[in-house]
Design brief:
The complex is a heterodimer of chains A (about 100) and B (about 450). With about 100 residues, chain A is mainly beta. Chain A has helices spanning about 5-10, 30-35, and strands spanning about 10-15, 20-25, 40-45, 50, 65, 70-75, 85. Chain B is built from 14 helices and 23 strands. In chain B, the strands form 7 sheets. A 5-stranded parallel sheet of chain B has the order 4-3-2-8-21, with helices on one face. Chain B has a 5-stranded parallel sheet with strand order 10-17-11-12-13. Classes of the chains: A mainly beta (about 100), B alpha/beta (about 450). Chains A and B meet through α2, β4 and β6 of A and β10 and α4 of B.
Amino acid sequence: MPPRTSSSAAAVTISADGRSVRVPAGVTVAAALLELGVSAFRRSVSGEPRAPLCGMGTCYECRVTIDGVAHRRACLVTVAEGMYVTTATGGEERQP
Amino acid sequence: MSAVAGSAALRDGPATGAHETRADIVVVGAGPAGIAAAVRGAEARRRVVVLDEAPNVGGQIWRHRSPGTLGTDARTWIDRLSRTTADVRRGVAVVDVVVGSETGDITVVAERHLGGVEVIRASALVIATGARERFVPFPGWTLPGVTGIGGAQALLKQGVTFRGKRVVIAGTGPLILPVAASLTDAGARVILVAEQAPFQAVRDFAISLVAQPETLLQAAMYRLAFLRTPYAMGTWVTAASGTDRLAAVTVADARTTWSLPCDFLCTGYGLVPNVEMARFVGCTTVEGAVVVDERQGTSVPRVFAAGEISGVGGLALAVVEGEVAGAAAAGVARIDPVLVRRRQALRVVARRMERAFALRQELRSLARDDTIICRCEDVRRAAIASLADSRQATLYARAGMGACQGRVCGPALELLFGWQPGTVRSPLEPARLSTLSTAALAGAASSDAVHSAGS
């Protein structure tokens, strides 16, 4: 068990496209992914990379798979310890 | 089930049972209007349930991760809400609403983002669903790195660091200034703020605000905060380019065009009221806003509307309207005349602003034949330009049939072609099949429901 520091207390570990990463607690999945450099959250029906546009749940461009549930709006879900996220960047199949 | 609902229904997730709650008032939306309505309703000793999609209350303008970052007004209202008995459910999307006959229940079905269904039965409904941003389609607007100004603000508050990023802001109206200021404060390099309205319109509007000193002062403070940023009036972005993400934008004014490399482009072409739920239950709308009476009552008995959906007017107006709607939904006989006068004054300012920042004609012709208009279904301009209305665009070309259900392309079609939005259908948001079956069991799908009046 690694020693806990004050910074790790305010962080959670999620899996993003198979990578295990520490992200600040309280951020949304969208923010965490953008900070990790993910630019293609999903692929459009004609294969274009897409990323958050509205940031408030309207446009559905930030859809990713969270804990096995497809089409979750990353901008509306807060990161949680052990959360498992996959995106188009990680080879997620097209999401019509 | 209709084609639209079928297309919007997403893969079934882990099923959990529905959770039923009975209330006097159900408030949809926990932004300033919804919070004020819930507070007034609960303080009048009514059982209030509030539903919101976001992880925290506050809506867009009072969005926060920790209360310490909130301004005084926001904290006061949010604290006041938490002291009431109002039951606030966050992280839920309303997928269906049925307004029963005269005395019957109003049933609201909502889905939790990561599983689970809520069914609320109440005798009054306050719709406070706020507004979204208007997006103007232009070549390259689908590239990652292009967001709304509200989107950038939201992502910033959600935890995105814009430090060192080159940001271009393009749009119209006073809302672009505070976003430029907060991105600058966050360490972004805001290299251009392009206001599409001409200098004269901006100046005339600023002069008209002299009667509202606090607003003028606020704008000036924001202006000072990013003084080193070029603020160009009569200037707009015509295109964005890049391969897998945004690399540069093309900017135009009346005389010339030029290219500007950047990491983010944030556009803000005004707000569109989120009237879908109101239209769905049959509320009358005029020019995209819900028609309300003195008590914020809609054309549907027992259904009230407050905030941006009854006409975009900003934070102060939303709070006043929310207070009125909450009191009215609680059956309070006499509405505070101070609130009524304040509401009238704020509505006058809102109308003036709308005129000053009308969108220029050039913005309607930025999209080329191969520019995507409907981002969900990748429908390009050429596929719909020769059609007659948004219904044809949906039926023949699938525009508006994707996950956002026309919330982004609908206002764009109106701007480009003058087409009115199509019929609103259930589910109001894409839902899992298990949610839809719960909605059906809850009576939300019954064929004699009053909500069919909306179609």
